[in-house]
Predict the structure.
Amino acid sequence: MSWLKETEIDLFREAEKMTHYEYDGNFQDLFEYHGNTTIEHKRKHAGVVVQHDWILFDSMEEASEYFFNRCG
């Protein structure tokens, strides 16, 4: 990808991840799956991240199945 400009590379990377938001009366949960064996989970309250976790899986198949079942 050496022919891409830095901003184009950032846009390409952004397009590769899948994001899902869930809203509870008090919290906003954000799940991001980047196509590997981890899913990033952030929980926000009043716009501030109060919990940040990485959910780890043994395979990409397990991670994608979890993401699509949880966020599909």
